[in-house]
Amino acid sequence: MKNRDIIIVIIALFLVIMALSFIRNKKYSAILHTGKGDITVVLNSDKTPKTVNNFITLSKKGFYNNTIFHRVIRGFMIQGGDPKGDGTGGPGYRFDDEPFEGEYTRGTIAMANSGPNTNGSQFFIMHKDYPLPKDYVIFGKVAVGLNVLDAIAESPVSTGSSGEISKPVKPVKIMSIEIIQK
């Protein structure tokens, strides 16, 4: 490797470290503006900076605008963040899991994935407490809008292509996600 390449790698690593430390020192919340009302989520930037940074970046870019909650299971969770709207889409990249704290309790927001280190854009919000394995990075909690969560989770569903009864009959749209920095 040439000296120039080494310097570029060092600078890139420095910038990543600075970005992660910057986000850790800030408090963020996200307001999900949905077709059923707003859900405000407090994001755990101090505990899961990589995951929160990804969610904030995608939100600010408008990635989630006009997507739907494509998977809804009453008493369990609502899932969104897929630009295709069928559970197969994502941002075109994946990132690794990171250590996290917490349980999958009502109002918890976590990354949906297809296995270890396959996080992208899809997330879910717990409708009720549920004993999931610690395979999904928890990165926040609903602070306001549990009534909206209930309205989405209690929407009529039908059988999807996977055979699971979780496909919304009338999907609820995420119009946009607004990021608030404190």
Characterise the protein shown here.
With 182 residues, the chain is of the alpha+beta class. The protein has a single domain, classed as Cyclophilin-like (Cyclophilin, Beta Barrel), CATH 2.40.100. 23% of the residues lie in helices and 30% in strands. Strands 3-11-1-2-8-6-7-5-4 form a nine-stranded antiparallel beta sheet. A hairpin with a 2-residue loop joins strand 1 and strand 2 (37-43). The chain is globular. The mean pLDDT is 92. It is an enzyme of class 5 (isomerase).
- Reading the helices and strands in chain order gives HEEHEEEEEEHEEE
Distance between the termini: 42 Å
The number of helices is: 3
Radius of gyration: 17 Å
Keywords: Isomerase, Membrane, Rotamase, Transmembrane, Transmembrane helix
Organism: Candidatus Roizmanbacteria bacterium GW2011_GWA2_36_23
EC number: 5.2.1.8
Pfam families: Pro_isomerase (PF00160)
Compile the SSE list and pairings:
Blueprint: H1 3-24, E1 28-34, E2 37-43, H2 49-60, E3 67-68, E4 71-73, E5 77-80, E6 108-111, E7 123-126, E8 138-144, H3 146-153, E9 157-159, E10 165-168, E11 173-181
Helix pairs in contact: 1-2
